[in-house]
Write a structure and sequence with these properties.
The protein is α+β, with helices and mostly antiparallel strands. The chain has twelve helices and 17 strands. The chain is globular and about 65 Å long.
Length: about 425
Amino acid sequence: MTTEQVTVVGAGLAGCEAAWQLAERGVPVLLQEMKPNRMTPAHHSADFAELVCSNSLRSNELSNAAGLLKEELRRLGGLIVQCADETQVEAGGALAVDREAFARRVTERIAAHPLIEVRRGEAAGVPREGRVIVATGPLTSDALFADIHRLVGGEFLHFYDAAAPIVTAESIDMSQAWFASRYDKGTADYINCAMDREQFDAFWQALTTAEQAEVHGFEDSKVFEGCMPIEVNARRGHDTLLYGILKPIGLPDPKTGRDPYAVLQLRRDNAQGSLYNLVGCQTHLKFGEQKRVFSMIPALKNAEFVRYGVMHRNTFLDSPRLLDNTYALKSDPRIRFAGQMTGVEGYIESDASGYLAGAAAACEVLGKPLPAFPSATAIGALAAYISNGTVTKFQPMNINFGIIDPLGYRVRGKREKNMAVSARALEIVDSIAKEMA
């Protein structure tokens, strides 16, 4: 236990995880969050850890790098993954959550912690004294953005991110759709909406010519590949979607026993199963155009849209020049950054950066050795990626096996190799967890 307080700015996934890791280690925390005093177009709730895009934290399987990262965080006592597990909804092999219940659970846990003081209100700048973790995410307020820019010098990089529409379950025409998971993997948790060739052609034509909402400075070339707006993807070619989000392979129509020409999958968005989001349909079309175009899919002809897709700017640091592998600012190590602004991309990746920033800050306060996560772990691989000074053109990155240290010996089969990498990583993480206990 110590009396030195650490300030965490931003109560998204990374900020909440950082605050939790500090507090659980006996370090007092001041957690500052601008909501609800100031909201952004992407936010709809005053709760912490709001999921503004998909409600999925991606695969839970250890043959998938996202699954490995989540399991590492589980074994290390991560708050976000624990709350996600407690509020999950059916999504085959993925970990998807009831987004409102999830945010509420995180908020309640943070608010109830005796060592976390929550302060609502916008932070106009980075605190000039004391240790601080800045985790304000892609929608950092203008005043704080300007102060960070002054602090680090140089230019921020940026790209654009998008969210998918959500419809009510009762408005989906199930005579034109069916429940299934691809290749019958896991349980049948997705609603599959088929299109034949003629229907797809009309949909593609409407999608590629629909009117877009204005987003200042938007360029297709600056969109992050992992959250590509469907209309941007479609403009790359007539068949692009058929090999991506509308791929029909492994989803035979029960009426015919054959794979359709195209299939859009819908994933449950809340525990009650009353809301479904259009998987992969992130968009920045005007709201009226979204309703017109997506309603061309037969099963969505009469769909009731409870939330339309939105587009917003993401900002991130030139981290390889600025941060070390514990997310500390090289020029002023009392300051750490966490979340998407560091160049990690994705919910669970943001969470992992918050975990490491919080744990490292706590160790410094308590005079303990900093946690050493090697690149053989998913947590360490992400930290190494964002701090790799040899990278000349830095771009945001999801966790993947390509940035995790190779095994050093041959394993036949991709899945088997990935499972071996995961087993090695978890053995290392279990050892680190014991050291940090």
